[in-house]
Amino acid sequence: MIPVVDVDIKELELKAVQDVVKSKYLVEGKNARSFEEKFSKFSGAKFAATIVNGTCALHLAMVALDIGPKDEVITTPFTFVASSNTILFSGAIPVFVDIDRETYNINPEKIEEKITEKTKAIMPVHIFGNPCDMKAIMDIAEDRNLIVIEDCAQAHGATIDNTHVGNFGSIGCFSFYGSKNLVGGEGGVVITNDEELFEKIKSIKNHGRSPEGGYAHYFIGFNYRMTDLTAAIMNVQMDRAKEILSKRHNTGDKYREGLSELENLRIQKVLSGHQHSDYIMAPVILNEKFSQNRVIEYLKSKDIGSRAIYTKLSYQQPCYLDLSKWHLSRVIDYPDYSKIKCSNSELVAQNHFEIPMVTSLTDESINYIIETLSEFFD
Ligand SMILES: Cc1ncc(COP(=O)(O)O)c(C=O)c1O
Fold first, then answer.
1. Angle in degrees, CA 92, 95, 96, rounded to 5
2. How far is the CA of 206 from the centre of ligand 1 (A)?
3. Options 3.40.140.10, 3.30.420.40, 3.40.640.10, 3.40.50.720; which CATH number does 11-98+106-240 get?
């Protein structure tokens, strides 16, 4: 079976971890500092701070930007649940805006109508690694004085006019969870171009300490530090980023070329000047004749791994439909999420399917996948 996801880890990563174990310095240290330097260069951001994972990176961004109780944050429902969960963690309320059915990203034209006097921020998610229309989003944010936090968890290597995503809003948050383009097992980074905010982030992720450490705590903070074991893996992954990403882009380009003519299928639209991270390739079925499950089962029968991931939108998740189990519901009035309907998001959720996007794919297997899909959707 050609795997739908895989991890590109080699001997070099193993050696890096062994070195950390031998050094006995397992907590955040010189490997983390070196990874931050590499990630800042890679992303073009002035500052990068390691965080234990992408979820904590987003939560930290909320706290550092003072987003909390009584605030509303606009985001997309077609994403991993962590995106809107971090809004809930901060005490704020997620407000869901429908996606564009072609890019699968939040539709900037629908943001305006959801802005109220309580709206404090927008959290665009570059879903599957496809950059959002950041120009339109930033125009709205500037016009309405809103903060922007970019969820770049899936978007390593995604750019808009050569600027890496994460640099448009106040903070960009990345994940290095084990299935991502660049992996550390768990892991995260926040980037920013604001020095004061960066200092605050570094303190809050370390229990509100000053840069010198010690036991005086200036903010209520968290332990969101990354271990040097993870950072050591990430250092090697950064050294290999070009190699890993170019393989993914090669596969993404071949899929886009080979599948764009299929009438019953639509591949995710990438806006002009935008570079997809090629984290996930998930076309959408356009003809009711072919169901999501049928396609996935057919591909599997041909030894091609496939799956559908966000078949439940965030507002459809059981935990959102019964927020009484969430402790902050004792003090916060949440909307009735069962009344929300984002029709494009529901359409994409019910009709997308993932195809293999792994660095071990050969040109031969890419062609085989394209041919198999062409035959099925003919
Ligand atoms: C879009 C999105 N946001 C946030 C996260 C959370 O990142 P992590 O799993 O590193 O906590 C993920 C998942 O991995 C994600 O895909």
1. 145
2. 21
3. 3.40.640.10
**CATH architecture of the region 242-376:** Alpha-Beta Complex (3.90)
Nearest residue to 222 (alpha-carbon basis) of 205, 244, 247? 205
Distance (Å) from CA 82 to ligand 1 centroid: 6
Take residue 223 and report the two structure tokens written for it.
């332990």
Which residue, 263, 338, 374, 279, is CA-closest to 6? 279
Integer Cα distance of 127 and 270 in angstroms: 11
Domain spans of the chain? 11-98+106-240, 242-376
Does the beta carbon of 283 sit less than 6 angstroms from any atom of ligand 1? no
Burial-class residue 264 by CB neighbours within 10 Å (0-12, 13-18, 19+).
middle
* Phi, psi of 188, rounded to the nearest 5 degrees: -155, 165
Count the neighbouring beta carbons within 10 Å of the beta carbon of residue 87. 26
**Given this chain, do its domains 11-98+106-240 and 242-376 carry the same CATH topology?**
no
Pairing between β-strand 119-123 and β-strand 72-75 as defined by DSSP bridges: parallel
From 154, 182, 189, 314, the mutation candidate for ligand 1 (largest count of ligand atoms within 8 A of CB) is: 154
Say yes or no: CB of residue 54 within 6 Å of ligand 1. yes
Run means of pLDDT, 10 residues per run, the chain, 378 residues: 96 98 97 98 98 98 97 98 98 98 98 98 99 98 98 98 98 98 98 98 98 97 98 98 98 97 96 98 96 97 98 98 97 97 98 97 98 95
83 Cβ inside 6 Å of ligand 1: yes
- Return the half-sphere exposure (C-beta side, CA atoms, 13 A cut-off) of residue 168: 30
Residue 80 Cα to ligand 1 midpoint, Å, equals: 6
Burial 189-204 (b: 16+ CB within 10 A, else e): bbbbbbeebbebbbbb
What is the pTM (predicted TM-score) of this model? 0.98
pLDDT tens per residue, range 354-378: 999 999 999 999 999 999 999 999 8
Q: How many CB atoms lie within 10 A of CB 148?
A: 22
> Quick one: tokens of 86?
């971090």
